[in-house]
Amino acid sequence: MMLKKGKYPWYSPENVIPEQSRGVFHSLGNLKALPHFPTNIMEMQQLLASDDVAPKAIATQLRADPVMAAQVLQIAENIRNTRNPANPKIKSLEHAVVYIGFKQLSELIMSAALKTFKVPPSGFDVETFWNESYLIGSIAEYIVQRLQLKLPAEEIFIAGSLSNIGKLVSAFCFPPIATKLVREVSDPTVLSTWRKAESTFSFPDHSILGEIAALLWGFPTTIADAVRHHHDVPDPAKKPRCHTG
């Protein structure tokens, strides 16, 4: 998880960032405006990472945060309704924790927490961003199911949903630039893409910004890889890497 620079003399944020992305990290002032996750989210992540923690203990911790608890229940019910609609409805937190699974729950809580961060005023529409992100996640999950790939559906959904978080980083840390990017891609006389707009304003690619943020925030490397490479064109001569957890 991200620690404030200088809190510990042995810690440096760039330690978790791949060498090819460190230049961007340093050139942008170490992304000082990137928000930190609240203490309760960090505590929940530590608990979920424990080897001997029981679902009941997770549920007890969730009850301390009614908003998070309600989100977990809703997420579990949405998953059940989509994949196993004939099964009984999920009504307890403990059942929801077991149904979702610790690893996916950890990622889902982190993803949900991102939506609670206050974004500075700019031309960037946060609600539109998340609506489009969830659509991307659903498409990614559908493709995996359609191709019958042996990959965790929920992990694929999260990876797809977070693939564009680099755009969110721009809105968090560089509101004036985010406004320029939005205007550029919204101008019908320009017909630009977000990446072309970034190039126009000599701004780093959002896939790099997203990878840096994903690693600093403590997301798994599978998520960071998806964020970094979501614009890459696959080489048909190479066998794709499959992350199964």
Automatic annotation (TrEMBL):
It comes from the Bacteria. Pfam families: HDOD (PF08668). Residues 34-233 form the HDOD domain. SUPFAM superfamilies: HD-domain/PDEase-like. This is HDOD domain-containing protein.
